[in-house]
Design goal:
globular; single chain; alpha+beta; four-stranded antiparallel beta sheet; 8 helices; about 240 residues
Protein backbone atom coordinates (compact mmCIF):
# COMPACT_ATOMS: atom_id res chain seq x y z
CA UNK A 1 0.00 0.00 0.00
CA UNK A 2 3.15 2.16 -0.12
CA UNK A 3 2.50 3.33 3.44
CA UNK A 4 -0.36 5.59 2.35
CA UNK A 5 -3.81 5.10 3.80
CA UNK A 6 -6.50 5.55 1.19
CA UNK A 7 -8.93 7.76 3.06
CA UNK A 8 -12.64 7.21 2.71
CA UNK A 9 -12.99 10.65 1.09
CA UNK A 10 -10.17 10.10 -1.42
CA UNK A 11 -11.55 11.01 -4.86
CA UNK A 12 -9.68 8.03 -6.37
CA UNK A 13 -11.79 5.60 -4.33
CA UNK A 14 -14.78 4.19 -6.27
CA UNK A 15 -18.17 5.60 -5.29
CA UNK A 16 -19.34 2.13 -4.26
CA UNK A 17 -16.52 1.97 -1.69
CA UNK A 18 -16.50 5.54 -0.35
CA UNK A 19 -19.20 4.95 2.28
CA UNK A 20 -17.83 1.57 3.34
CA UNK A 21 -16.37 2.03 6.82
CA UNK A 22 -15.69 -1.73 7.05
CA UNK A 23 -13.19 -1.73 4.20
CA UNK A 24 -10.33 -0.02 6.07
CA UNK A 25 -9.88 -3.00 8.41
CA UNK A 26 -10.85 -5.58 5.81
CA UNK A 27 -9.05 -6.83 2.72
CA UNK A 28 -9.90 -3.74 0.67
CA UNK A 29 -7.81 -1.55 2.96
CA UNK A 30 -4.58 -2.75 1.30
CA UNK A 31 -5.72 -2.30 -2.30
CA UNK A 32 -4.43 0.50 -4.49
CA UNK A 33 -7.08 2.76 -6.09
CA UNK A 34 -6.84 0.99 -9.45
CA UNK A 35 -7.16 -2.42 -7.77
CA UNK A 36 -10.11 -1.22 -5.72
CA UNK A 37 -11.76 0.14 -8.86
CA UNK A 38 -11.24 -3.17 -10.67
CA UNK A 39 -12.73 -5.11 -7.75
CA UNK A 40 -15.68 -2.71 -7.38
CA UNK A 41 -16.58 -3.19 -11.06
CA UNK A 42 -17.22 -6.86 -10.32
CA UNK A 43 -18.74 -6.44 -6.85
CA UNK A 44 -22.37 -6.68 -5.80
CA UNK A 45 -23.84 -5.28 -2.59
CA UNK A 46 -26.42 -7.57 -0.96
CA UNK A 47 -28.76 -7.11 1.99
CA UNK A 48 -29.60 -10.52 3.46
CA UNK A 49 -32.48 -11.27 5.81
CA UNK A 50 -31.97 -13.16 9.07
CA UNK A 51 -31.88 -16.94 8.75
CA UNK A 52 -30.78 -17.05 5.10
CA UNK A 53 -28.28 -19.71 4.04
CA UNK A 54 -25.36 -17.95 2.38
CA UNK A 55 -23.13 -20.94 1.65
CA UNK A 56 -23.97 -24.60 2.15
CA UNK A 57 -21.63 -27.43 3.14
CA UNK A 58 -20.00 -29.07 0.10
CA UNK A 59 -21.18 -26.27 -2.20
CA UNK A 60 -18.95 -25.21 -5.09
CA UNK A 61 -17.27 -21.90 -4.23
CA UNK A 62 -18.07 -19.33 -6.92
CA UNK A 63 -17.78 -16.13 -4.89
CA UNK A 64 -16.38 -14.58 -1.72
CA UNK A 65 -17.73 -11.68 0.33
CA UNK A 66 -16.73 -8.95 2.71
CA UNK A 67 -19.13 -8.74 5.66
CA UNK A 68 -20.11 -5.08 5.91
CA UNK A 69 -22.47 -5.44 8.86
CA UNK A 70 -24.32 -8.10 10.82
CA UNK A 71 -23.36 -11.53 12.13
CA UNK A 72 -22.83 -14.75 10.17
CA UNK A 73 -23.15 -18.15 11.84
CA UNK A 74 -20.90 -21.02 10.69
CA UNK A 75 -22.07 -24.59 11.28
CA UNK A 76 -20.95 -28.15 10.61
CA UNK A 77 -23.26 -31.15 10.37
CA UNK A 78 -22.58 -34.78 11.20
CA UNK A 79 -23.84 -37.58 8.90
CA UNK A 80 -26.67 -38.34 11.36
CA UNK A 81 -28.01 -34.79 11.12
CA UNK A 82 -26.59 -33.36 14.34
CA UNK A 83 -25.40 -29.79 13.89
CA UNK A 84 -22.76 -27.75 15.72
CA UNK A 85 -22.09 -24.03 15.56
CA UNK A 86 -18.34 -23.75 14.96
CA UNK A 87 -17.90 -20.01 14.64
CA UNK A 88 -19.30 -16.52 14.18
CA UNK A 89 -18.14 -13.89 11.73
CA UNK A 90 -18.55 -10.12 11.92
CA UNK A 91 -17.67 -7.03 9.87
CA UNK A 92 -15.17 -6.71 8.26
CA UNK A 93 -14.45 -10.46 8.10
CA UNK A 94 -13.85 -12.22 4.80
CA UNK A 95 -16.54 -14.82 4.08
CA UNK A 96 -15.32 -17.80 2.08
CA UNK A 97 -12.66 -20.49 2.11
CA UNK A 98 -9.70 -19.65 -0.12
CA UNK A 99 -7.89 -22.28 -2.16
CA UNK A 100 -10.70 -24.86 -2.01
CA UNK A 101 -13.20 -25.74 -4.70
CA UNK A 102 -16.01 -26.53 -2.26
CA UNK A 103 -17.14 -25.19 1.09
CA UNK A 104 -16.66 -27.27 4.24
CA UNK A 105 -19.08 -25.32 6.44
CA UNK A 106 -22.56 -23.87 6.17
CA UNK A 107 -22.79 -20.09 6.56
CA UNK A 108 -26.11 -18.56 7.62
CA UNK A 109 -27.07 -14.99 8.43
CA UNK A 110 -27.68 -14.88 12.20
CA UNK A 111 -28.92 -11.29 11.85
CA UNK A 112 -29.68 -9.08 8.91
CA UNK A 113 -26.37 -9.01 7.03
CA UNK A 114 -24.94 -6.68 4.42
CA UNK A 115 -22.35 -8.21 2.10
CA UNK A 116 -20.11 -7.06 -0.70
CA UNK A 117 -19.63 -10.10 -2.94
CA UNK A 118 -17.21 -10.73 -5.80
CA UNK A 119 -16.18 -13.69 -8.00
CA UNK A 120 -13.73 -16.11 -6.41
CA UNK A 121 -11.75 -16.32 -9.65
CA UNK A 122 -11.11 -12.57 -9.53
CA UNK A 123 -9.83 -12.64 -5.93
CA UNK A 124 -7.64 -15.67 -6.65
CA UNK A 125 -6.09 -13.76 -9.56
CA UNK A 126 -5.62 -10.58 -7.51
CA UNK A 127 -3.91 -12.55 -4.73
CA UNK A 128 -1.27 -13.74 -7.22
CA UNK A 129 -0.70 -10.15 -8.35
CA UNK A 130 -0.83 -8.34 -4.98
CA UNK A 131 1.51 -9.35 -2.12
CA UNK A 132 -0.30 -6.84 0.14
CA UNK A 133 -3.65 -8.57 -0.44
CA UNK A 134 -2.12 -11.99 0.14
CA UNK A 135 -0.54 -10.71 3.37
CA UNK A 136 -3.83 -9.21 4.63
CA UNK A 137 -5.71 -12.44 3.95
CA UNK A 138 -2.94 -14.37 5.72
CA UNK A 139 -3.28 -12.03 8.72
CA UNK A 140 -7.04 -12.54 8.84
CA UNK A 141 -6.66 -16.32 8.65
CA UNK A 142 -4.15 -16.29 11.53
CA UNK A 143 -6.46 -14.05 13.57
CA UNK A 144 -9.28 -16.55 13.07
CA UNK A 145 -6.93 -19.35 14.15
CA UNK A 146 -6.00 -17.42 17.31
CA UNK A 147 -9.69 -16.83 18.09
CA UNK A 148 -10.47 -20.51 17.53
CA UNK A 149 -7.75 -21.49 20.01
CA UNK A 150 -9.11 -19.01 22.56
CA UNK A 151 -12.57 -20.48 22.08
CA UNK A 152 -11.21 -24.00 22.63
CA UNK A 153 -9.95 -22.74 25.99
CA UNK A 154 -13.36 -21.27 26.76
CA UNK A 155 -15.17 -24.49 25.94
CA UNK A 156 -12.66 -26.78 27.62
CA UNK A 157 -11.73 -25.01 30.83
CA UNK A 158 -14.12 -22.20 31.72
CA UNK A 159 -17.10 -22.52 34.04
CA UNK A 160 -20.67 -22.07 32.77
CA UNK A 161 -20.73 -18.53 34.14
CA UNK A 162 -17.45 -17.68 32.39
CA UNK A 163 -18.64 -19.25 29.12
CA UNK A 164 -21.80 -17.13 28.99
CA UNK A 165 -19.85 -13.99 29.90
CA UNK A 166 -17.25 -14.86 27.23
CA UNK A 167 -19.97 -15.19 24.60
CA UNK A 168 -21.47 -11.81 25.52
CA UNK A 169 -18.00 -10.25 25.53
CA UNK A 170 -17.34 -11.68 22.05
CA UNK A 171 -20.52 -10.10 20.69
CA UNK A 172 -19.93 -6.82 22.53
CA UNK A 173 -16.45 -6.45 21.02
CA UNK A 174 -17.42 -7.35 17.45
CA UNK A 175 -21.08 -6.48 16.82
CA UNK A 176 -20.34 -2.83 16.07
CA UNK A 177 -16.60 -2.08 15.66
CA UNK A 178 -17.33 1.66 15.36
CA UNK A 179 -19.07 1.86 18.76
CA UNK A 180 -17.28 3.74 21.56
CA UNK A 181 -16.90 1.19 24.34
CA UNK A 182 -16.17 3.88 26.94
CA UNK A 183 -19.86 4.82 26.86
CA UNK A 184 -20.99 1.21 27.21
CA UNK A 185 -22.00 -1.23 24.51
CA UNK A 186 -25.46 -2.20 23.28
CA UNK A 187 -26.42 -4.99 20.90
CA UNK A 188 -29.13 -7.48 20.04
CA UNK A 189 -28.29 -11.11 20.66
CA UNK A 190 -27.55 -12.63 17.24
CA UNK A 191 -28.42 -16.16 18.41
CA UNK A 192 -31.39 -17.72 20.15
CA UNK A 193 -30.96 -19.16 23.64
CA UNK A 194 -30.90 -22.63 22.01
CA UNK A 195 -28.13 -21.60 19.61
CA UNK A 196 -26.12 -19.99 22.41
CA UNK A 197 -26.42 -23.21 24.41
CA UNK A 198 -25.28 -25.20 21.35
CA UNK A 199 -22.34 -22.86 20.79
CA UNK A 200 -21.24 -23.07 24.43
CA UNK A 201 -21.97 -26.74 25.09
CA UNK A 202 -24.51 -25.87 27.80
CA UNK A 203 -28.22 -26.37 28.33
CA UNK A 204 -30.73 -23.63 27.54
CA UNK A 205 -31.64 -23.48 31.23
CA UNK A 206 -28.02 -22.93 32.23
CA UNK A 207 -27.60 -20.12 29.69
CA UNK A 208 -30.75 -18.38 30.93
CA UNK A 209 -29.74 -18.82 34.57
CA UNK A 210 -26.27 -17.34 34.01
CA UNK A 211 -27.61 -14.40 32.03
CA UNK A 212 -30.09 -13.69 34.82
CA UNK A 213 -27.22 -13.73 37.32
CA UNK A 214 -25.23 -11.26 35.21
CA UNK A 215 -28.30 -9.03 35.04
CA UNK A 216 -28.90 -9.17 38.79
CA UNK A 217 -25.23 -8.37 39.43
CA UNK A 218 -25.50 -5.29 37.21
CA UNK A 219 -22.96 -6.54 34.65
CA UNK A 220 -25.56 -6.43 31.86
CA UNK A 221 -29.06 -5.12 31.30
CA UNK A 222 -31.59 -7.14 29.31
CA UNK A 223 -34.36 -5.38 27.39
CA UNK A 224 -37.16 -7.34 25.69
CA UNK A 225 -35.19 -10.59 26.08
CA UNK A 226 -32.82 -9.97 23.13
CA UNK A 227 -31.43 -6.46 23.55
CA UNK A 228 -28.33 -6.33 25.76
CA UNK A 229 -26.76 -3.28 27.38
CA UNK A 230 -23.22 -3.58 28.79
CA UNK A 231 -22.61 -0.45 30.91
CA UNK A 232 -18.96 -1.34 31.61
CA UNK A 233 -17.10 -3.63 29.22
CA UNK A 234 -14.27 -4.15 31.75
CA UNK A 235 -16.65 -5.70 34.28
CA UNK A 236 -17.91 -8.12 31.66
CA UNK A 237 -14.33 -8.98 30.69
CA UNK A 238 -13.52 -9.77 34.34
CA UNK A 239 -16.49 -12.15 34.52
CA UNK A 240 -15.37 -13.77 31.26
CA UNK A 241 -11.76 -14.07 32.47
CA UNK A 242 -10.40 -12.51 29.30
CA UNK A 243 -7.67 -9.96 28.70
CA UNK A 244 -8.70 -6.61 27.22
Amino acid sequence: MNGERKDIHNSEVPVLCQACEARHKGICGVLKPDELLHLSQHSVRKSIETGTELVSDDQDIASYSNILSGVVKLTKMLPDGRQQIVGLQFAPDFLGRLFRKTSQTTAESATQVNLCSFPSTLINKMIRQSPDLEHRLHEQALAELDEAREWMLTLGRKTAAEKVASFLFLIARHADPAEDESDGVTFDLPLTRADIADFLGLTIETVSRQMTKLRKDGVIQIVNNRHIVVPNIERLAMRARVDT
